[in-house]
Write a structure and sequence with these properties.
single chain; 344 residues; mainly alpha; 14 helices; globular
């Protein structure tokens, strides 16, 4: 037997990539060496600047004209938005019945926040493509969700989380506007001049994206360690949280697939709805949580981080199976919606 055959590799359907490992390593680093004192102040300022840069880049990459062009498939996009910002929040509110026997109030607040953040873009596109679904629809649906989430997620958090969101007030709303919305709008205004540069340097900018998220994670988890709030998370509570998230994901995957069928969507559109309507964006949710929850952000983002990895693993398996579906056409139809070139 050759050495090549003896080499152990991860299954192709198991998307545990270097970024996930980096996130885990960042959490471990924050647990062992949390930022304190002056270092914490510097890290907090850097995290604030990184979040602003992140949303400026989001705004500069998202073409308003291309998004408006995607409105031609408005029924599908409204379905995805309803799943993301209506059905998910209702299920998040229902999780209040799990307190205090299954989840602590803090973990339930994070669970509810997870249900408020927008959908993903890149993974929705990837899985839709693997499953031979409507890729242009997945691109536009993810873009609409991300754009809507910048406005709607903070408002839903103010309405549904209340004091659990760190004491949502006029000051915190102003902070969100200055740290998230203003940079995003600035990016939209600058797109005319920097759009081409961003398109040519996507790999470098992806590192900026991920580096910013890692900095936010380290800052949030450091604050949690210093405040001692991690003593509230026992192995039993963590297991209960994972079980609750598994149920949430299963319900949304079933609802988006069978509900889309009842609404009269074809197979390719149902695939796009399932993958775009059942997932949540870690990249968009983490910066928002750092603003909304303050020192409690580490517990608030824990459910989102766990759900992120769970959705990748489960959706990867589903996408592979859908690609082998005998109903899947061997060739794509010639008539398609235009694919936005700048979507992420």
């Amino acid at each position: 037997m050759s050495s090549r055959r003896r080499t152990l590799t991860l299954p192709s359907w198991l998307p545990v990539d270097a970024y996930i490992l980096a996130l885990v390593g960042t959490v471990v680093l924050a647990a062992l060496l949390p930022a304190r004192g002056t270092v914490a102040d510097v890290a907090g300022g850097a995290s604030t600047g990184a979040v602003a840069l992140l949303f400026l880049l989001y705004g500069a990459r998202l073409s308003t004209a291309e998004v408006l062009d995607g409105l031609k498939h408005w029924r599908l996009h409204l379905t995805v938005l309803a799943c993301t910002f209506l059905v998910f929040p209702l299920l998040g509110l229902a999780s209040g019945g799990l307190v205090p026997y299954v989840l602590t109030p803090e973990l339930q607040a994070g669970f509810l926040f997870l249900c408020l953040v927008p959908s993903t873009i890149q993974s929705s596109i990837t899985f839709t493509s693997i499953a031979r679904g409507n890729v242009p629809a997945a691109i536009c649906a993810g873009s609409f969700s991300s754009l809507t989430g910048i406005f709607l997620t903070p408002l839903l958090a103010a309405l549904l989380l209340g004091s659990a969101g760190g004491g949502f007030s006029a000051d915190s709303l102003l902070e969100i506007v200055l740290q998230l919305l203003v940079p995003f709008l600035a990016g939209q205004l600058l797109r005319r001049w920097v759009g081409g540069f961003l398109t040519r340097h996507r790999k470098v900018l992806a590192l900026v994206d991920r580096g910013s998220i890692l900095l936010v994670v380290h800052t949030a988890f450091s604050e949690g360690m210093v405040a001692g709030i991690w003593s509230q998370v026992t192995p039993a509570r963590l297991g209960a949280l994972l079980a609750a998230e598994a149920v949430l994901l299963a319900v949304m995957l079933a609802l988006t697939w069978h509900g889309a069928r009842r609404l009269g969507f074809g197979r390719e559109d149902r695939i796009a709805i399932q993958f775009a309507g059942s997932k949540k964006s870690l990249a968009a949710g983490l910066p928002m949580a750092s603003v909304l929850f303050g020192a409690q952000a580490s517990l608030a983002v824990l459910p989102l981080m766990l759900f992120h990895q769970m959705q990748l693993m489960v959706c990867a398996v589903i996408a592979k199976r859908r690609s082998r579906d005998p109903e899947a056409p061997e060739e794509r139809p010639q008539h398609r919606e235009p694919v936005p070139t700048a979507a992420r």
